[in-house]
Amino acid sequence: MPKNKDILVIGAGLAGIEASLLAANAGRKVYLIEKKPYFGGASIKSEEIAPNMECATCMLAPKQSELLEDKNIELMTLSEIKEISGDSGDFTATIIKRARYVSLANCIGCGACFEPCPVSVNNEFEEDLSKRKAIYIACPGALPNAPAIDMDYCVRAKGDDCNKCKEACMFEAIIYDDKDEEIEIKVGAIIVATGYLLGDMNQFTTYGYGKFKNVFNAFEFERLRASNGPTGGEIQTRDGKKAKSIALIHCVGRDKKGYCSQVCCMYLTKFAHYALDKLPGVQVYQLYKELSIPGKGNQKFYHEVNEKGVRAMRAKEIEVAENGNGAGLKIIYRNEKVEKESIDVDMVVLAPYIEPYPGTDTLAKLLGVELGSFGFFKTAEFDSISTTRPGIYVAGCAQGPKFMEDVIIQAQAATAHALFSTED
Q: Distance (Å, rounded) from C-alpha 422 to C-alpha 24?
């Protein structure tokens, strides 16, 4: 039997975008599905990329535009897998495509529908640092440049006959009677690129996350620095003040999870660079158990940043508390000699472990593939691409934590596997 040449890519972050473009450039039809109403994954939350501090948007936006214009790629946002059957070369995938309630064909992304909406909720893309409406775009510049209506919050879902967003739209783009769709496609190979999530900080009470307002996780700090973020790129406390001292705490949850997330030391070094660049005179502390700085470029960047005045120290048994005057935070820890010490700071930034994206276990069951001991997709011993089911491959942080350049390389390798496996 001839093999189906089409390819399904699950997850439209950096790995999924790279794989889709490569497969499309090889002349293949690609179905790219994404659970969110936008695509780009965690990468679009970043302002710059270490160690060379390239503009993240400048790197990703051209790829996103190319993808949207590629006739070989069918992007389906708000979509997820319901069922997979068949074998390598002849898979059948059933996809649930959720209603957007906004026409991608008619909407021009003007944003006139936002202000009239009576609902205001926390914006999860911005790590709850800002508010959004029930009809919303995750952040300025998110693609597709069209909002979606979140029926979990829209008052129409509660029986209210509200038409305010529709009345504000001059292009008849609002579709209140939009429906979910069930779509069946046939493909020859599947690439899983579902990405990752930062570990839940609320379970580590000694660090004060959720208890003290100026304890931030890594994504929260990244969005503070982002020019399209909630503060327009200003690094500030939740009180709106510029921090005079910041502590960056490594390895949060590492002992519990049992693995090093590999990238945290470098992004905290990037955060130190952010702080020194935006806050003249700021004192930055790095508190770590162990350092993971692989590669000459990373090591050069780490030493250059630290030489600007970062105080790096090995620390154990770290606890975050309020200082005596209630105006800041106190970090209590044991140094290399197991002596108790403390420092006072205005802001604390935590680097939690990286874990598989929620729902990875459910997706693995639908795909009929195994997960490894840490919950990421299991791959062959000498092959970090092939899953335990022929014809299904994995790319990016769905396989484990990794740097962006490694994500791209693995996406290229996964695409090569998918192309080769569907050749007759």
A: 14
